[in-house]
Fold VTT domain-containing protein.
Amino acid sequence: MFDVQHWLVSLPPIAVYLLVAGVIGVESMGVPLPGEIVLVSSALLAATGVVEPEWVATAAAAGAIVGDSIGYAVGRRGGRPLLARLGRRFPRHLGPAQLARAEQSFARHGVWAVFFGRFVALLRILAGPLAGALHVPYRRFLVANAAGGLVWAFGTTYLLFTVGRAAEHWLKDISWAGLVLAVLAGLASTWWLRRRAHRLEAAEPAQSTEPAGSAEPEPAQSTEPAESAERAKSAEPVQSAEPAESATPTPAPDGDPPLSVGPALDVEPAPVPGAAPARTGRNR
């Protein structure tokens, strides 16, 4: 950081402002660059009077808002294939694991991931392209992006500017030990926002691995209807298998022919040729 600060001293103020806006803007498009280091160095440089803190903060906020908006447009146009290509190009910063974590942040927290992502290195790089690839409404994205960019840029700049001015005053009386304490105090003031952002990230894996609700077991089908049917079937009267009485007469004992059960018919014997007809009661 001190090498960067020494290099910034050799530049004119307008070049410092443009450098701050450019580096932070390109970083916000999805390219891993040390945007925060440039902002911190410029803010500490403002404490020495070389540059103005309000212009440093304005340049940082403008770069963050414009860069995120360009990254949003690129992500919306390129979609997930673009994120995959960025992951192959920058596997350390934008690998599959980092992309999955950032995507879980958006799925869990929505546009709040854009606001708090400005204070986290990973989400600060991916907020714009990922929001575009996930088709987050641009108006909502712009509000969260602008709010996060302004708070981050002006808060960081004026915090470090104040710490730097105090450190310069303390160095006259307290030596380098006071500078160390001043820097620690300044860093502690940004701890809460970073801690909040990391808590949001840590909550995502727990939510993604939350077990799905187990389906209620289907009640076992009752066998009572089948058993009732079996009992009813067994209780039915057994029909006699004996056949009905046959109309055929039962043969008489001792080999006699069966007796006819029909009415007796008067059958006249056939006349014998040459014989006189037999007298009957009718001829008398």
About this structure: The chain has twelve helices and no strands.
